[in-house]
Amino acid sequence: MKLELRGITKRFGSLVANDHIDLTVEPGEIHCLLGENGAGKSTLMNVLYGLYQAEEGDILLDDVVQHFEGPGDAMAAGIGMVHQHFMLIPVFTVAENVMLGHEETGFGGRLNMAATRKKVRELSDRFGFDLDPDALIEDLPVGVQQRVEIIKALSQNAKVLVFDEPTAVLTPQETDELMAIMKQLKEAGTAIVFITHKLREVREVADRITVIRLGKVVGEAEPTATNEELASLMVGRAVDLVIDKAPARPGDPALVVTDLSVIDHIGQLVVNRVSFEVRAGEVLAIAGVQGNGQTELTEAIMGLQHRVTGEIKLAGTSLRKRSVRHVLDAGVGFVPEDRNQDGLVAEFTIAENLMLDRSSSEPFVKFGNLQLGFLAEFAEEKVKEFDVRAQGISTPVGRLSGGNQQKVVLARELSRDLRLFVAAQPTRGLDVGSIEFVHGQIIAARDAGVAVIVVSTELDEVSALADRIAVMYRGGIVGIVPGDTSRDVLGLMMAGEHPNFAGEAA
Question: What keywords were assigned to this record (predicted)?
Fold first, then answer.
């Protein structure tokens, strides 16, 4: 099925999110929609999917103009969408989620679960998804949950499939698996719109590339274009894809972790006798495939894990079993890996989210009264400094793109007086221009004497930022190596092999 968008224009008040956008996607084609956060990519696809109504323009399928009043109309016409934040109910099974909204009934009006299970198995076998129809969503890894989203769309005979930032929450291995799935779908004749800002992914799977900037199409590119050319089109200026940083000048140990172990809520040992130190003025990157204890390690440092043994000291003072408030007040900034779950309150405004961890003291609160004037001035300054794309500081943060939400979290945490900055997946969901900015902020914090921990599954990011790299595998640290260690060596360490050269003992 051929998809064509002609002159699509969508406004939110005075903000023109889409400005007369044209786009054509042929059957059996992967068409990448590339652009910065807030450029209008997701808005355009939400118009296509019937979630928004455009003020101007037409949607055509096989040259026939469509009129979608909602997602149900779009799905009925053969359009499916895999959202960045999955539209799944955690306590439902795979089959129940696939059936939801398209319930098949049998004798006496009973749900025909057998038919849905069969459909899930057939599609799973066809694409090699290995999905159990009766598995609960909450028990599945993120990458497998995404396959459920794809099955949902394919079960409704989607001929046009939209992937909206599908790799934002995936590990590198899961990303590679998704790329292979997209190629399978393409070979089956599906027209695919792939929204992303990750240049490597674009060049790997795209047949054609359309670049959107500030709501307008600013150009088209071939997959053979260089990263620098694509980044320049996206941002409208030359982007430095290599971090320019001076050698670190580390001081005394700021954070010292000794024999730290964590047992999770189901009694599993997820961090196993980990020891390391982070000195003032250095970046220690923690690498590893997601799920090897990195999350629980950072949560233990922040006071979010309760079954913890060993010791955590910041500037000589113990943080173990202290409250999150105590940890924050000790001078720790924290960027959680799931910004929606742990970093933001979606219903609160940008300004309110910027003061979340400082809402009990001056200068934001005096004598029990919120200082609205100071908050507004502070928020305006941070929105400008971190280039948060929004209508204003009173915009609910839940309405922002994923990348702009992340900028709000970073702006809040980096604007405090810090001794230690812990950043878990700090650039997840950000575009190249924003990544350049965030990396610069992290190095600036290091150069200001802050001890920095960066947890990332992106080896390019780890190598770019790290002065030293600790690699985690099955809850332990395989080794701590210099920041210029090769990707090949890091990859072997991520699989559990110890480095065969002199490095710091774990």
Answer: ATP-binding, Cell membrane, Membrane, Nucleotide-binding, Repeat, Sugar transport, Translocase, Transport
